[in-house]
């Protein structure tokens, strides 16, 4: 359900793994599978532990403000880059 997941695993990791030969390719595949398992397992455990805190309205508001500030920062940086390209 997350297209970014498929992009990472198929396109990026596939192209990197395709550079290896023989046992190195197998080692890379096993390593990426293990890293993926640890990453997603950690995300699920972390989400379960933080759920009571993250469900508070004040925390949700703080997260929303943080995301908005990041988006404004990215928008400003992109606008500056676009302006520099035109001048």
Automatic annotation (TrEMBL):
It is a multi-pass membrane protein. Keywords: Cell membrane, Membrane, Transmembrane, Transmembrane helix. The chain crosses the membrane at residues 28-50, 62-83. The keyword Transcription does not apply. One of its GO terms (cellular component) is plasma membrane. The keyword Membrane applies. It is found in: Cell membrane. GO terms for molecular function: amino acid transmembrane transporter activity. PANTHER family: ARGININE EXPORTER PROTEIN ARGO, ARGININE EXPORTER PROTEIN ARGO-RELATED. This is Amino acid transporter.
